[in-house]
Design brief:
Uridine Diphospho-n-acetylenolpyruvylglucosamine Reductase, domain 3, Alpha-Beta Plaits, alpha+beta, globular, five-stranded antiparallel β-sheet
Length: about 475
């Protein structure tokens, strides 16, 4: 679908969203044509950007789009990494940024009601002020709630507390033809017909526009501690994780990180990681209701890790130490971003991580490409970074485009194929968008793809909502 919006349609859009709600100047719409995917090959300038303030305005926009047959691309914070909010067929971008109210923090039901444009940072602040917590840390804090739900964002804390899907209790959604529907609500159990609420979560804006969400909260997390545990090999570190879970130690998060990216991030931030021994570190984050319980958990985790060959266990036992460790970990992508082409987020059975990472390293050697790989050791989500640079000490040296461009697709295909062969899927938390749709088709039963297409056709028979994504 590709159309040109005439002046009458633009005038009607302006009337719907009011002053300041319609952008058509290319200089002002430029930033709405891409997300955080590094290659601008997929970027596309929208014909217009609309910024509604209410669900009724969203409904009017979609009714107009159906009448005039122009595509609509919903957009949150644009922190995605696979082109999910890129207006690939042109048309308009529907930005939820002005729908940014925290409607309610309901203490009695331990739920928050928020509009789709509330950022993760704003959400954390609102619920923590009331003594509650939203345990997942599913993305960049500038990401918006609607986008996080639309991609079923995950994060490293999924091992103990789950992904965003586990906390969404209700949604207000505007369907492609303009109907406003309420799915779920302030309820925990629901066996009343098909679960359309769960269908919307992770649908990437292709079935409806999420305008408001009801989210389950938990009591505030009391005490947290980070342990940095170096190993001589990735295999030894990963093999520790099942034993931690079998002994009911339930870490908040377990991540594995290679030393090369740590060195680069240390230099980038001018901060120090707690250790330099070994080749791979586990970052284990624990939480507990009391300091005494946290001490007990830390000692038991340390004992298991040392039993499985850890070189040492470093405890970030003060707030300052913990902040430094978490800041270094959270800034790895920022440190290596200038040299990154794409971040993969293959999800595997966690026991397959060592063999998969070994194969990734082989692929890197075969093609002469740096493929730093780290991720969530306890939930199997592996992030391989396909690079257009090579490491040299604490620096990255750029590789000429003519060199990396010729290898990129073959490297990506080889990594995806290995993930598929090990029972993995192409995305654990980032979604499909534009970038991964070919790989989804190659790795998914055609019967299932047919069912997904059928669902899309039922919800959006005119094909106006985020066309060209997933399929």
């Amino acid at each position: 679908m590709e159309t040109r919006l005439d002046s009458a349609v633009l005038q009607e859009l302006a009337g719907i969203v009011g002053e300041g709600g319609l952008l058509t100047d290319p200089e002002k719409t430029l930033d709405y044509g891409h997300d955080e995917f590094s290659l601008r090959d997929i970027a596309r300038l929208p014909e217009a950007v609309v910024k509604p303030r209410t669900s009724a305005e969203v409904a009017s926009i979609l009714k107009l789009a159906n009448r005039e047959r122009f595509p609509v691309t919903p957009r949150g914070g644009a922190t995605g990494l696979c082109g999910g909010c890129v207006p690939a067929p042109g048309g308009i971008v529907l930005s939820l940024e002005r729908m940014n109210r925290v409607v309610e923090v309901d203490a009695a039901n331990q739920m928050a009601v928020v509009e789709a444009g509330v950022t993760l940072l704003e959400f954390y602040r609102a619920v923590e002020e009331k003594g509650f917590a939203f345990p997942p840390h599913p993305g960049d804090e500038s990401a918006m709630i609607g986008g996080l739900i639309a991609t079923n964002a995950g994060g490293s804390r999924a091992v103990k507390y789950g992904v965003i899907r586990n906390y969404v209790r209700g949604l207000e959604v505007v369907l492609p033809r303009g109907e406003i529907v309420a799915l779920g609500g302030k309820i925990v159990k629901n066996s009343s017909g098909y679960n359309l609420l769960q269908l919307m979560i992770g649908s990437e804006g292709t079935l409806g526009v999420i305008t408001q969400a009801t989210i389950q909260l938990l009591p505030g997390l009391k005490h947290m501690r980070s342990l940095v545990i170096p190993y001589e090999s990735l295999e030894a570190g990963i093999e520790t994780v099942p034993l931690l879970l079998q002994r009911n130690l339930a870490p908040l998060a377990v991540e594995f990180v290679d030393r090369d990216v740590i060195r680069i991030t240390e230099a980038f931030l001018r901060k120090r990681w707690p250790c330099s021994a070994g080749t791979t570190d586990l970052l284990v984050i624990l939480d507990a209701a009391t300091e005494a319980e946290l001490d007990r958990l830390s000692e038991e985790v340390a004992a298991v890790c040392l039993e499985r060959g850890a070189i040492d266990v470093f405890s970030a036992d003060t707030a300052a130490k913990q902040d430094e460790v978490l800041q270094i970990r959270s800034k790895i992508y920022e440190a290596i971003k200038p040299g990154t082409i794409e971040i993969l987020d293959i999800s595997l059975p966690r026991a397959e991580i060592p063999a998969h990472v070994k194969r990734v390293r082989e692929i890197g050697r075969e093609f002469g490409v740096w493929l730093p790989t780290f991720g969530h050791a306890a939930d199997g989500n592996v992030h391989t970074h396909i690079m257009k640079a090579r490491p040299e000490g604490v620096r990255m040296i750029a590789v000429p485009e003519v060199e990396w461009r010729s290898k990129f697709e073959a490297v990506r295909a080889a990594i995806y194929e290995d993930g598929r062969s090990r029972g993995g899927v192409v995305s654990g938390e980032h979604g499909i968008g534009i970038v991964k749709r070919d790989y989804l088709a190659r790795s998914t039963d055609p019967v299932l793809i047919g069912l997904m297409r059928g669902i899309k056709a039922v919800f959006d028979p005119d094909g106006i909502l985020n066309p060209g994504k997933i399929f």
